[in-house]
Amino acid sequence: DTAVSQTPKYLVTQMGNDKSIKCEQNLGHDTMYWYKQDSKKFLKIMFSYNNKELIINETVPNRFSPKSPDKAHLNLHINSLELGDSAVYFCASSQEGSGRSWEQFFGPGTRLTVL
Amino acid sequence: AQSVTQPDIHITVSEGASLELRCNYSYGATPYLFWYVQSPGQGLQLLLKYFSGDTLVQGIKGFEAEFKRSQSSFNLRKPSVHWSDAAEYFCAVGAEGTGRRALTFGSGTRLQVQP
Predict the structure, then answer these.
(1) What is the DSSP letter of A100?
(2) Is B60 helix (H, G, I), strand (E, B) or coil?
(3) Which of A6, A40, B48, B81 is least crowded, fewest Cβ atoms below 10 Å from its Cβ?
(4) Contact B32 A102 (CB under 8 A)
(5) A6: exposed, middle or buried (C-beta count within 10 Å: 0-12, 13-18, 19+)?
(6) A75 touching chain B per CB within 8 A
(7) What is the phi/psi pair of residue A100, to 5°?
(8) Is residue A37 classed as helix, strand or coil in its secondary structure?
(9) A77 class by beta-carbon count within 10 Å (0-12 exposed, 13-18 middle, 19+ buried)
(10) Chain B residues with CB inside 8 Å of A35's CB?
(11) Interchain contact, A102 vs B101, CB within 8 Å
(12) How far apart, in whole angstroms, are the C-alpha atoms of residue A43 and residue A37?
């Protein structure tokens, strides 16, 4: 009955590889996000999707490509991984509407380590 | 653009002592304010939120926070800290009217609890 789930929890890979992180939410929300938490614990928005439509695309390398097959899923694909991509990636979701749409529910995070 | 400042990077308190974590925000209007907690190796859990109304909000685990418009602050408090409260605490702001639905996070405050 997990609200926002991510797979995998840990991902260790070599530089240059391509990898994907999956996110699913069962809250019925229509907006999903990807945040990146760096080694200093700083959290920053990367992408946001509303009803499968991209609404926020922060300045991230185009090696990062989000894909939303439906409202309940937002996957993150990363091409040509670099050392600097090592971080914890959090998925989150919320329901568009009143002020309460700002209340975001976070997944457990995926710790990506690029060697 | 909105910003969030958590001036204390690291705080140590004794178990049973009171706690106050500081958060200041910068935004032209009243933002939506949140406190999240991240236990080691875990995701982000919402502690409490302020949207409007009563400026003193109660959250989970015995936490409360007070919104002070004049000081642009939203400090988190707990009257008696438990060892299990040791974690990283993040203040976040959501700003209506910016065309964005992503939260802006502070840099976090790490709380250590001494026996």
Answers:
(1) G
(2) helix
(3) A40
(4) yes
(5) buried
(6) no
(7) -65, -10
(8) strand
(9) middle
(10) 102
(11) yes
(12) 4
Query: What are the pLDDT digits (tens) for A57-78?
Result: 777 888 999 999 998 999 999 9
Q: How far is Cα B69 from Cα B58, in angstroms, rounded to an integer?
A: 18
The dihedral built from the CA positions of residue B74, B77, B82 and B86, taken in this order, carries a sign that is positive
**Cα dist. B77→A15, A18, A70, B74, B107 in Å?**
43, 44, 40, 10, 18
Estimate the share of chain B in helix, then strand, then coil, as percent rounded to the nearest 5. Answer: 10, 50, 40
Inspect the interface and report whether the beta carbons of B102 and A45 lie closer than 8 Å.
yes
Does the distance separating the beta carbons of A94 and B43 come in below 8 Å?
no
Give chain A positions within 8 Å (CB) of B101: 31, 33, 48, 50, 55-56, 94, 96, 101-102
Determine the residue of chain A that is closest to B3 in CA distance: A44
| Backbone dihedral region for residue A62 (phi beyond 0: left; psi -120 to 50: alpha; all else: beta) | alpha
Torsion, Cα of B101, B107, B109, B110 (10° steps): 110
Which tokens in the block code for residue B56?
Answer: 């003193």
Give the Cα separation of A29 and A72 in Å (integer): 7
